[in-house]
User: Fold Flavin oxidoreductase from Tannerella sp. oral taxon BU063 isolate Cell 6/7/9.
Amino acid sequence: MKINLGVKPYLFPMPVLMIATYGEDDRVNVMNMAWGGICDDNKVALNISDTHKTADNLRARRAFTISVANQDHLEAADYFGMVTGNKVPDKFERTGLHAVRSERVDAPVVTEFPLTIECRVVDMKTTDGTMRVVGEIVNVLADETVLDERGRVDPTRLNAILFDPFQSGYYAIGEKVGQAWKSGAVISKRDADA
Assistant:
């Protein structure tokens, strides 16, 4: 029997995305967010409270990077979600992580995170205190340690973490259990044989 839980943001898995921007003083700001993701072949969408420092930076610079948070840097990733750049302007420096300027957009690339998507803002709307940002992907950077022998990102090497909205936990990605567009072929074959 199913139990009604009411209106909750209960979708699993949720990503742990590190949104990096520059402030007006070129200071690096990183925000931890789960409410974002791919929305087209070359676009990402973010949903951010309009009061975040990141929202101000996006309005001013119209560029950002998204990095995949990993187990090796879980403490820093969580800290980025606990502390606001509005009150702690040097929060990035406090983590001991490092950043370089993107060669393609006006945003920082956090060097410790293994996968980074460089984005240019193409649309931004604020409704009821929430800023919806659509960014065009202009490039993806991957550390060579997370690539397989064919140069593709290997998810098992990313050591990415996921957010659990039910109990506010972080989880590691597990083993591969199937192949997209192939695992369901058993049903297609069964239907064809019937």
